[in-house]
Amino acid sequence: MSEPGERAERIGLVVPSSNTTAEREFRAHLPDSVTVHGARMALESVTVDELDAMSDDAARAAELLGHADIDAVAYACTTGSLLHGPGFDAELEERLAEAAGVPAVATARSVVRALEALDAERITVVTPYTADLDAKEQDFLEAAGFEVASIDGRGLEANTAIGVLTPDDAFQQVREHVDPAALDAVFVSCTNYRSLAAVDDLESKLGVPVITSNGATLWDLCGAADIAVDGPGTLFNHDR
């Protein structure tokens, strides 16, 4: 706990307006001395058109978070930060860092950094998305140098429908669609998919590292802000 008069560490999250998961998953694994502050970009359905339009609001949202004297900021949306392929994630990080005046990370780039920290090459991906977004995600990950052995999506567009999924749903989707043989890691995609609480059980069952969108973003953001965090799974045993 911070002492009276002592400034708490602060992180900012730029999230889709319909995201109900990112802030609470971050809060569950951060020390009490760190506060979480959110800013929202309009999004109801997880489609190419809405994700594209949403990114136009990112810099303004980051600028407003900068008014709260945050220590670092994240663009906490997976497909929204990979939509335009390799390089778009890095561009988002640059735009947010300039707008907020602090280090910035974008979820798609955080996932790449996390997989690289784990020395992962061959991965399986599970998502709540439709097939067109799964294809874009696979293309992005393969362009980043990973072999995607398989990808499974739930076919959901409404972000509120994704938000009501539970860690048990994530656990079952992974168990039903992932063969851990010859895999280096499993990636559960989407910052609105409640899956971080399933990581420890999945790693125990599968015997390989499991990362999630929020887990990778939390690990990366806290590394950028030099904040100690004790999250679930193998990833948090590695430095950024």
The name of the CATH topology of the largest domain is Rossmann fold
Strand and helix order: EHEHHEHEHEHEHHEHEH
CATH architecture annotation name of the largest domain: 3-Layer(aba) Sandwich
**What general form does the structure show?**
globular
Q: How many strand segments?
A: 8
Structural class: alpha/beta
For the largest beta sheet, what order do the strands appear in spatially? 2-1-3-4
How many structural domains can be distinguished in the coordinates? 2
Distance between the termini: 25 Å
What percent of residues adopt helix (DSSP H or I)?
40-55%
Helix segment tally: 10
Q: Profile the largest sheet.
A: 4 strands, parallel
User: What integer is the average pLDDT?
Assistant: 93
Radius of gyration: 16 Å
Q: What is the CATH class of the largest domain?
A: Alpha Beta
Low-confidence stretches: 1-5
Which band does the percent of strand residues land in? 15-25%
Question: Could you describe the 3D structure shown?
Answer:
The chain is of the alpha/beta class and 240 residues long. The chain has 2 domains: 9-106 and 215-237, Rossmann fold, CATH 3.40.50.12500; 110-212, Rossmann fold (3-Layer(aba) Sandwich), CATH 3.40.50. It is built from 10 helices and 8 strands. It has helices at 22-29, 48-54, 58-66, 88-100, 107-117, 131-143, 159-163, 167-177, 199-206, 213-225, and strands at residues 9-16, 34-41, 72-75, 104-106, 122-127, 147-153, 185-188, 210-212. The strands form 2 sheets. It has a 4-stranded parallel beta sheet, sandwiched between helices. A 4-stranded parallel beta sheet has the order 6-5-7-8, sandwiched between helices. β5 (122-127), α6 and β6 (147-153) form a beta-alpha-beta unit. The longest helix is centred in the middle third of the chain and has 13 residues, at 88-100. It is globular and about 50 Å long. The chain starts with 8 loop residues before the first strand and ends in a 15-residue tail after the last helix. Mean pLDDT is 93; it is low at 1-5.
